[in-house]
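Proteins fold reproducibly. Take a sample protein:
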Amino acid sequence: MASREQPAGQADSRTAFRFVLLIGVLSFFADFTYEGARSVLGPYLALLGASGTIVGVVTGFGELLGYSLRLVSGRLADSTGRFWTIAIVGYTHRRLMGLVLGGVTRNLLANVPLPMLMHH
């Protein structure tokens, strides 16, 4: 039987393609989760009794922090050339915050006097 070995360049190309595809899928699910949660923040705060001003200030401040972090991390990536390191740190940070704040959110929602749909 003849072996089906690939030239080194073709194997590297397939590995790179798989990596980029994996990062794309990871980005899709991260954005799906993040945008889904962010879209209900305003109505959720209003449901808890927050005024329109409070909802606007909280969501606006969150947007300000997000865009500020993008500006800082973008300039850092450009100056250091460590694009992948900064991207991986960003995704890792997002997952860690989801774990940390997810537990806090679950406890907070469990004590809210309003009926909530929760899934474990």
About this structure: The first helix runs from residue 8 to 39.
